[in-house]
Structures are given as C-alpha cells and as structure tokens.
Amino acid sequence: MVVAPVRGVDLYERRGGTYSATRREDPRIAAAIDDALGDARSVVNVGAGAGSYEPADREVLAIEPSDAMIAQRPPGAAPVERARAEALPLEDASVDAAMAVLSDHHWADRPAGLREMLRVACRRVVIFTWDPSYGDRFWLTRDYLPGFHRLHGMTIDDIVSCLGGVERRYVPIPHDCEDGFYHSYWRRPEAYLDENVRANISIFWRLDPGEVDHAIARLRADLDSGRWHERNAELLERPEMDYGHVLLVRELG
Questions:
Q1: Angle between the 156-163 and 110-120 helix axes, to the nearest 10 degrees?
Q2: Which of 13, 30, 73, 228 could link 222 by a cystine bridge, Cβ 3.0 to 4.6 Å?
Q3: What number of helices (H) and strands (E) belong to the chain?
Q4: Is the pTM of the predicted complex or chain greater than 0.70?
Q5: pLDDT band, very low/low/confident/very high, at 152 (cuts 50, 70, 90)
Q6: Residue 252 and residue 85: Cα distance in Å, rounded?
Q7: What CA–CA distance (Å, rounded) separates 133 from 113?
Q8: Domain CATH number, residue 193
C-alpha cells in the first residue's frame, strides 16, 4: 500500500525541522545556477527553504510557505515572505529573474507556480529541477526503491511546455556533493543507511514506511556482503554523474 503523499508546506511543517543539517549549498551547483541567472540584479527565489543557492551579490527576495523552513534560514539571509509559488506577492515584471531550486515538485499546482514565475520576471526564469526520464539510471531507484517512479509528476517536456522555449543545461552531480538531496550520495551508498540523511530527503517521507524499511534493509545487506560494490564498481572512480538534474533557462523579452 502507498501512503498518500503529503505535499508542499504540510510536508515540511511535519518533517522539515532538521533540514539544514544535511541540505547545504554545493558550490559547484551554485556556480551553475549563478551563471544561468546571468545579468539579473533582482531575483525572487521561489520555494526558498533554508536559504541555499541564494546569490549574495544580488538583491534577493525569498518566497517560502513553511515556518519550519523559514526558522532555519541563517542570520543575514535574504528577506523572506511567507507565501506559495502559486500566488507570488509581486507585481508583474517586477524582478529581473525568478528562480527555483529543487522545489517545484513540492508545489500543489506546479503549472500555476510556473506561470507565476513567468509573470513576475522581466528577464529570465531559472529552474533547477530533475528529469524523470533518467529514473532508472540511479541504482537506488532501480535496485531498491522502484516506488520512486510513482511520485514523478510532471515530465521535463511538461514543464517546458508551461514555460515556453527554454535552454536545458544538464548539471552533473559531483561524487562529494555537499547538498544531501536524493541523488547526492550516488558514490557514498552508506549514507542512505543514516536516518538523519534520509530525514531530509522528501522521497523517504512520501513512500510507505514499510517499503522504505525493506529497501534500506536490502541495501545494508548488499553493502555488508559486497554485492553493492560488485554491481556498481564502475561508479567508484567517477568524479561526477549525470542523473538528470537540469537547469531550465527561459529568456524573456
């Protein structure tokens, strides 16, 4: 049985209290996002969470619906307004760029949120998201958590259709990625055994707990026996992997 997924703000209010412990900005991903923002001086960060990836040298307004996330924003972070992606509290074309970083899959109405980003930005929209067509490239999904496929939602083509013509920039994930999202530990499988790591990856909240427990038990057994390393030996020397993380850049005007 699948537990009905808890989405958006409710999910983070219930489970996100330690998010910033493992979800930190990776400088290489941050550099790719900063490059995509181009010459934008004013930026709205939609679904801003605890403040990662907000460029310090630009005028940033953070939009975040979860009090649990807002409470974890560090001193000196960009000003934040408690609001949802689907109803941004900004005038039309009032910022140079609208950005979202691994947050759009949590929005209750993703097309509405994308339309809002297009409405408030006058130069470009930049979204760092994930392409579900890459699902089975990742060993954790393919071999242990196939239930992840049930939670995909929109395809990249669906998102592109909402945004209009975009540039797609695929971003490889370094083997020592500092941001602990779902794919980050692709070369560090033992990390998924850590309950604190899993606590800050939403997929582990949204699947049936029994399914997750079974997957982690199998992974633990395969690590103990050496089977995981036999299956995935080719990964151990790679510095980075493309698992479908992509920057979608829509130029406006």
A1: 40
A2: 228
A3: 10, 9
A4: yes
A5: confident
A6: 19
A7: 22
A8: 3.40.50.150
Average of per-residue pLDDT across 71-96: 96
Q: What is the end-to-end Cα distance of the chain in Å, rounded?
A: 48
pLDDT score of 253: 76
Q: 3-state DSSP call for residue 31? A: helix
Lowest mean per-residue pLDDT among 20-24, 119-123, 249-253: 20-24
In a domain, 146, yes or no: yes
Token pair recorded at residue 1: 């049985």
Assigned domain for 192 exists = yes
In terms of residue numbers, what domain contains 24? Answer: 8-251
- Structural domain includes residue 1: no
- Report pLDDT for 2: 30
Domain count for the chain, please give it. Answer: 1
Quote the CA–CA distance of 82 and 67 in Å, as a whole number. Answer: 8
Query: Cα–Cα distance between 241 and 179 in angstroms, integer?
Result: 15
